[in-house]
Amino acid sequence: MAATFSVLGADLAVKGDLSATADLHIDGSVEGDITCAALVQGEKSTVTGAIRAKSARLSGTVHGSIEAGELVILKSARIHGDVTYDALTIEQGAQVDGRFAHRVHATDEPSLTLVS
Domain range holding 84? Predict the structure, then answer.
């Protein structure tokens, strides 16, 4: 099965929920919930809604909750909402206004990495 990758360009504004079985790259704005395997968000992108992904790399603005297995928040990111994660990396300079919660699995230790 070949991997697929969907791109929403900077000139695209979407109102409604998005669901993708593969990877999603967003440079435009989305007003709705996003569910996908892997999400990459561009610096100028805005998401208003919940994000659920196995992995997410965020560098834009998010107004809503985030649930991700492996989450990377880059320095240009502005997050307004609660964050649930398995593994977390936050670049110095990122702004998060919300609560962090590690998803607890019976044998897992929390994983938090701060990058400068």
Answer: 17-115
8 within some domain:
no
pLDDT exceeds 70 at position 57? yes
3-state SS track over the chain: CCCCEEEECCCCEEECCEECCCEEEECCEEECCEEEEEEEECCCCEEECCEEEEEEEECCEEECCEEEEEEEECCCCEEECCEEEEEEEEECCCEEECCEEECCCCCCCCEEEEEC
Within a domain: residue 5? no
**pLDDT for 65-102, tens place per residue?**
999 999 999 999 999 999 999 999 999 999 999 999 99
Report the domain count for the chain: 1
